[in-house]
């Protein structure tokens, strides 16, 4: 797949209001669990907080990408014509395995199939290669943005949060002013003025750095609660 892509900002509300269309429905059936987690994360981001809504608009990109889709000979009809459905199914399968790219972030969902080029037959196999262009939604966080994550690991020197598709957003104890570590069977970070930071608590943080891991094809992030309106959220919020 080529690395060039045309990208422009898209508001997350547009996606939730049905922008995914047919392709989103197909992909939801194929990857229901993952999409459910993403929608839960979006619902947290779009909670009635002006600060959060302002920042979340930058995370979601609408991008158009080129791709080569190979259709096996057995999926062609007797006249040698490929069904559009076969191209869509194959594209969604390959798209799901791509996971993420350094430039675009995590690839979440195909929205439209914009163009199907002329097929080229492979001599030895009889398979047909179709160059296509499609639009999709991706997720990428940037330094200075406000996000919300769920604590899934508590260590002496900090905690790890899950933030949408990002599994490891690290909040160092040095970036938790007023908090002290309390050891125990279920270790926590305690503050006299704010709610406790512990496992399964939702924390609003600001991103202070990101790192792309090529081998794992994923991002890591450094975050902080040192700022206004940041920190663990009350259960009713």
TrEMBL record:
Subcellular location: Nucleus
Superkingdom as given in the UniProt entry: Eukaryota
GO terms of molecular function: single-stranded DNA binding; single-stranded RNA binding
Lipoprotein among keywords: no
InterPro entries tied to this protein: NA-bd_OB-fold, RNA_pol_Rpb7-like_N_sf, Rpb7-like
Chief subcellular location: nucleus
GO biological process annotation, one example: DNA-templated transcription initiation
Swiss-Prot/TrEMBL keywords: DNA-directed RNA polymerase, Nucleus, Transcription
Gene Ontology cellular component annotations, sorted alphabetically: nuclear DNA-directed RNA polymerase complex
CDD domains attached to this UniProt entry: RNAP_II_Rpb7_N
Keyword Transcription found: yes
Reported function: DNA-dependent RNA polymerase which catalyzes the transcription of DNA into RNA using the four ribonucleoside triphosphates as substrates.
PANTHER family the record matches: DNA-DIRECTED RNA POLYMERASE II, III (PTHR12709), DNA-DIRECTED RNA POLYMERASE V SUBUNIT 7 (PTHR12709:SF3)
Family: Belongs to the eukaryotic RPB7/RPC8 RNA polymerase subunit family.
Protein name per UniProt: DNA-directed RNA polymerase subunit
Source organism: Cannabis sativa (Hemp)
């Amino acid at each position: 797949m080529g690395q060039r892509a045309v990208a422009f900002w898209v508001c997350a509300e547009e996606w939730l209001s049905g922008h995914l269309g047919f392709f989103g429905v197909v992909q939801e059936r194929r990857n229901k669990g993952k999409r459910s987690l993403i929608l839960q994360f979006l619902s947290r981001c779009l909670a009635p907080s002006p600060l959060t809504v302002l920042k979340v608009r930058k995370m979601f990109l609408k991008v158009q990408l080129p791709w080569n889709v190979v259709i096996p000979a057995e999926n062609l009809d007797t006249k040698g014509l490929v069904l559009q459905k076969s191209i869509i199914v194959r594209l969604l399968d390959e798209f799901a395995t791509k996971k993420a790219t350094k430039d675009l972030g995590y690839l979440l969902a195909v929205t439209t199939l914009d163009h199907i080029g002329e097929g080229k037959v492979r001599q030895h196999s009889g398979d047909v290669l179709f160059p296509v262009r499609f639009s999709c939604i991706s997720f990428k966080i940037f330094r200075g943005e406000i996000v919300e994550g769920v604590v899934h690991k508590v260590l002496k020197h900090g905690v790890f949060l899950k933030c949408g598709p990002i599994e490891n957003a690290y909040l160092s104890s040095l970036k938790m002013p007023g908090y002290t570590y309390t050891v125990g069977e279920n270790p926590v970070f305690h503050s006299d003025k704010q709610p406790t930071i512990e496992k399964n608590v939702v924390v609003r943080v600001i991103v202070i750095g990101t790192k792309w891991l090529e081998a794992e094809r994923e991002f890591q992030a450094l975050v902080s609660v040192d700022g206004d309106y940041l920190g663990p959220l009350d259960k009713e919020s």
